[in-house]
């Protein structure tokens, strides 16, 4: 009908103005981040990548393994166990009594050098069955006291080795310092005409950061081993802690119950088949807990001391990767699967597959 | 009287035309229902409208179609029901259900589809405890179920019946206050915000603004979310097992005194900053296939309901991987740092050095593992994964620079002890590769011999075969759906079958050989 005007209101509030600038839409602003359309790389494992990955690992690892093995084989190491040998026959069944008595504990052993050892030769003492990693042992120290003289009485974390019998604080306190290793070694070369004695350099065996930052220059030992029970060696009360390198080395608690710690360095070469005499002071009590004591002379290479494991592990992994690379190459040739082949889709493969 | 007057007046009228009111479905609803049916979902309609309206709506969104056998379960007499005939009514309904079930069972044609239509009054009897299982058994074999004249309480009851009776995951979607009961009862409740107010939205787990967005919600985001969560959980177990078990192994070497090989700060930061960000980026951004592919291949959705990514095999596999990683890290580190010097200057490793090395190995190995797991690398993933490893070294450096009161044995450990030692870097490289080798071999093998659907599609996309061979791509897309009897593609398929059947019947009744069969109209 002509009088029938088109209604001005459109049906429903859903349809807004058509094309008008004011849209009144609640649609959130589009951004690639919220719509999860960020540009991305989507690598997939094609046979090329698989074989190349294994081959590259093999190519890198096998030479590294050989280098590590050669580096380890370069190291010459001599180990001598002495705690059973150094008990005089009179005390054969009373080792603990022997070690705790004040009898002279000097012992002489000899070591034969298998191959020429180039300087510097490192001297270690090795302890077995000694749990420096026990929780109560590791806690028992006071870093504040070690660092500065004004913290001398900060010994609460060091119990039970914190106070001497005379009531004063023990410096350095704690079980770690108390159990300081105190065997001594004097080396000599009886068959060498030029020089009979071998000096052991005891400087430079601790970490530099220990000497400069952790052990104070103004702190001197006080009341050491004064707690009634002796646990190890003595410390010179006139030398500040920052120069007591044996203590610093000992206080770096080892991770395993079998460990070595650096005793000193020998700065001359030793020849093959040479005999070295060691006059050692068998002072440290490992007999109470069936611990073993060993003396070690060792050179080092770029990889450190003698341990073939790293080289062998690298070679093993490298060989496994090489075998996998060859295996996958064979498989890809024998039974190739065309990439992107839609016959492998589950709806094409028939029932019972996903 | 009025009727007599009307009879007299309403004579010799000319019919001008007819008007009708169409309560339109929202835009995109038939397509959405079609896509969800192809994804393998079963769809029921619970509405408060009367039966004719509901049936018409069913036809317009292809839940019902010509050729579907409609099973109507109704109460026979709508008069006021006397008390003693309530039992008779119930028996009547029970008989109808039994007959219908029998009919369905005896049907031989595999493409036959049944639709169940039931109204609210009947439902109130059918939902009683003695009949509901029978009713559910019939409803489950029908292709679509339409319940009309349902009250809000009955909507909730029907949802509960399906949820508990079938044990499957249910999703309820509605837009009005009368849908709130159903939305809250279902496992997943979706509310549509719009014309009828916000009550449904406030009661729901997810709210969308139009029904057609449900398609994207399920087929794209549901699919991605399932995979992301499954991978995240498995990886979390893996990395914490790999880390925690090394602590336990170390106890065997400390006389079980409880000393940890790592500094407390390392352990604190492990789950906070050093390994958490990559997992979060995996859980938020990971996509196995893009959203267009998810929509084009509804069959990929079935990877979720079939639980292909979170079955026991996968969970135990990841835990085993964690166990293996922890063993490798621990044993390799112990054997490499055994008791000899670890540097050319003769120093031996203490517990701080061994702990820092072991921890560096864990961080590197675990982060490389997640890089192997991810398939979608945006700049965020790269930043988090490689950034986590870098953060660890930065932390070690900065922590070492703190005065020894705070850092104790870790003071200057990277700069002075470990950094210059080649054995440290060699160990990290070896341990990382050794830890990731089995996983790499496993996924290479799986991709080669037993690829899953999304692997194939990723390869097709990577080599751009969808662009080169469009015919193959279209064909696979059309095949990538579940067998379904509802939705307009099913209607199209049924029509095609019907026409084919007519064609075959016509050609079989033809006697004269030189006459072409007439084409179907």
TrEMBL record, chain A:
Residues 1-33 are annotated as: Disordered. InterPro entries: CDC50/LEM3_fam. This is ALA-interacting subunit. Residues 1-10 have a biased composition (Low complexity). GO terms for cellular component: endoplasmic reticulum; Golgi apparatus; plasma membrane. The keyword Acetylation does not apply. Its main location: membrane. The chain crosses the membrane at residues 49-71, 312-334. Belongs to the CDC50/LEM3 family. It is a multi-pass membrane protein. Keywords: Membrane, Transmembrane, Transmembrane helix. Pfam families: CDC50. It is found in: Membrane. It comes from Salix purpurea (Purple osier willow).
From TrEMBL, chain B:
The chain crosses the membrane at residues 236-253, 265-285, 315-339, 351-372, 384-402, 422-441. It comes from the Eukaryota. Its cofactor is Mg(2+). ATP binds at residues 47-49, 149, 155, 178-179. Its EC number is 7.6.2.1. It is a multi-pass membrane protein. The keyword Repressor does not apply. Its main location: membrane. InterPro entries: ATPase_P-typ_TM_dom_sf (IPR023298), HAD-like_sf (IPR036412), HAD_sf (IPR023214), P-type_ATPase_IV (IPR006539), P_typ_ATPase (IPR001757), P_typ_ATPase_c (IPR032630). Residues 201-451 form the P-type ATPase C-terminal domain. One of its GO terms (biological process) is phospholipid translocation. GO terms for molecular function: ATP binding; ATP hydrolysis activity; ATPase-coupled intramembrane lipid transporter activity; magnesium ion binding. Mg(2+) binds at residues 175, 179. It is found in: Membrane. PANTHER family: PHOSPHOLIPID-TRANSPORTING ATPASE, PROBABLE PHOSPHOLIPID-TRANSPORTING ATPASE. Belongs to the cation transport ATPase (P-type) (TC 3.A.3) family. Type IV subfamily. This is Phospholipid-transporting ATPase. It comes from Salix purpurea (Purple osier willow).
């Amino acid at each position: 009908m002509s009088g029938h005007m088109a209604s001005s209101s459109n049906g429903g509030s859903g349809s807004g103005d058509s094309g008008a600038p004011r849209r009144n839409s609640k649609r959130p602003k589009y951004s690639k981040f919220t719509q999860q359309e960020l540009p991305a790389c989507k690598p997939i494992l094609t046979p090329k990548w698989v074989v190349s990955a294994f081959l590259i690992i093999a190519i890198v690892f096998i030479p590294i393994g050989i280098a590590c093995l050669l580096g380890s084989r370069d190291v010459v190491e001599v180990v001598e166990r002495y705690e059973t040998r150094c008990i005089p026959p009179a005390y054969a069944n009373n080792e603990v009594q022997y070690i705790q008595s004040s009898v002279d504990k000097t012992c002489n052993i000899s070591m034969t050098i298998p191959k020429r050892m180039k300087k510097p030769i490192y001297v270690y003492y090795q302890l077995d069955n000694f749990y420096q990693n026990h929780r109560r042992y590791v806690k028992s120290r006071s870093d504040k006291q070690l660092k500065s003289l004004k913290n001398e009485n900060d010994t609460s974390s060091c119990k039970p080795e914190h106070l001497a019998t005379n009531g004063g604080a023990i410096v350095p306190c704690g079980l770690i310092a108390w159990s300081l290793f105190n065997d001594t070694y004097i080396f000599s070369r009886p068959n060498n005409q030029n020089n009979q004695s071998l000096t052991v350099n005891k400087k430079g065996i601790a970490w530099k950061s220990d000497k400069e930052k952790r052990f104070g220059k103004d702190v001197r030992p006080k009341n050491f081993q004064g707690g009634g029970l002796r646990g190890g060696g003595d410390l010179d009360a006139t030398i500040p802690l920052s120069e007591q390198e044996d203590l610093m080395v000992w206080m770096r608690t080892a991770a395993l119950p079998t460990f070595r710690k650096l005793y000193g360095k020998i700065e001359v070469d030793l020849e093959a088949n040479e005999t070295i005499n060691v006059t050692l002071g068998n002072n440290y009590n490992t007999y109470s807990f069936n611990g073993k004591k060993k003396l070690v002379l060792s050179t080092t290479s770029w990889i450190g001391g003698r341990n073939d494991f790293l080289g062998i592990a690298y070679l093993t992994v490298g060989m496994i990767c090489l075998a996998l690379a060859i295996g996958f190459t064979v498989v890809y040739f024998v039974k190739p699967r065309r990439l992107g082949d839609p016959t492998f889709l589950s709806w094409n493969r028939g029932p019972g597959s996903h | 009287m009025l009727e007599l007057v009307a009879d007299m007046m309403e004579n010799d009228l000319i019919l001008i035309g007819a008007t009708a009111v169409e309560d339109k479905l929202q835009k995109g609803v038939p397509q959405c229902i079609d896509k969800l049916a192809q994804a393998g979902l079963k769809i029921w309609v619970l509405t408060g409208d009367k039966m004719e309206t509901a049936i018409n709506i069913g036809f317009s969104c292809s839940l019902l179609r010509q050729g579907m056998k409609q099973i109507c379960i109704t109460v026979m007499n709508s008069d006021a029901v006397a008390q003693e005939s309530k039992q008779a009514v119930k028996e009547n309904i029970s008989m109808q259900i039994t007959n219908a079930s029998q009919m369905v069972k005896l049907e031989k044609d595999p493409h036959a589809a049944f639709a169940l239509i039931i109204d609210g009054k009947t439902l109130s009897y059918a939902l009683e405890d003695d009949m509901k299982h029978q009713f559910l058994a019939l409803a489950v074999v029908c292709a679509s179920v339409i319940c009309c004249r349902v009250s809000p309480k009955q909507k909730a009851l029907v949802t509960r019946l399906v949820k508990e009776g079938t044990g499957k995951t249910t999703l309820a979607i509605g837009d009005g206050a009368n849908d709130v009961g159903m939305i809250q009862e279902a496992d997943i409740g979706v509310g549509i915000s719009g014309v009828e107010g916000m009550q449904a939205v406030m009661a729901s787990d997810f709210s969308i603004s139009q029904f057609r967005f449900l398609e994207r919600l399920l087929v794209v985001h549901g699919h991605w979310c399932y995979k992301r969560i499954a991978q995240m959980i498995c990886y979390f177990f893996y990395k914490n097992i790999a880390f925690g078990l090394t602590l336990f192994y170390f106890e065997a070497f400390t006389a079980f005194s409880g000393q940890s090989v790592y500094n407390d700060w390392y352990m604190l930061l492990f789950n906070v900053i050093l390994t958490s960000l990559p997992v979060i980026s995996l859980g938020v951004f990971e996509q196995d296939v893009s959203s267009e592919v998810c929509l084009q291949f509804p069959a990929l959705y079935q990877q979720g309901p079939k639980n292909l990514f979170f079955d026991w095999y996968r969970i135990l596999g990841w835990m085993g991987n964690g166990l293996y990683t922890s063993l490798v890290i621990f044993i390799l580190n112990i054997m490499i740092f055994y008791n000899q010097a670890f540097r050319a200057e003769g120093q031996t490793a203490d517990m701080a050095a061994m702990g820092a090395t072991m921890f560096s190995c864990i961080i590197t190995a675990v982060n490389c593992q997640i890089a192997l797991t991810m398939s979608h690398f945006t700049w965020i993933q790269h930043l988090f994964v490689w950034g986590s490893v870098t953060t660890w070294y930065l932390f070690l450096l900065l922590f070492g620079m703190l005065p020894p009161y705070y850092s104790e044995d870790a003071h200057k450990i990277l700069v002075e002890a470990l950094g210059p030692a080649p054995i440290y870097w060699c160990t990290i490289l070896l341990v990382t590769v050794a830890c990731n080798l089995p996983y790499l071999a496993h996924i290479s093998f799986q991709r080669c011999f037993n690829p899953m659907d999304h692997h194939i599609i990723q390869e097709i996309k990577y080599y751009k075969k969808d662009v080169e061979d469009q015919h193959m791509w279209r064909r696979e897309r059309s095949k990538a759906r579940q067998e379904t009897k509802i939705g307009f593609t099913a209607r199209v398929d049924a029509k095609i079958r019907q026409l084919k059947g007519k064609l075959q019947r016509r050609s079989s009744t033809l006697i004269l050989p030189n006459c072409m069969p007439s084409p179907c109209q």
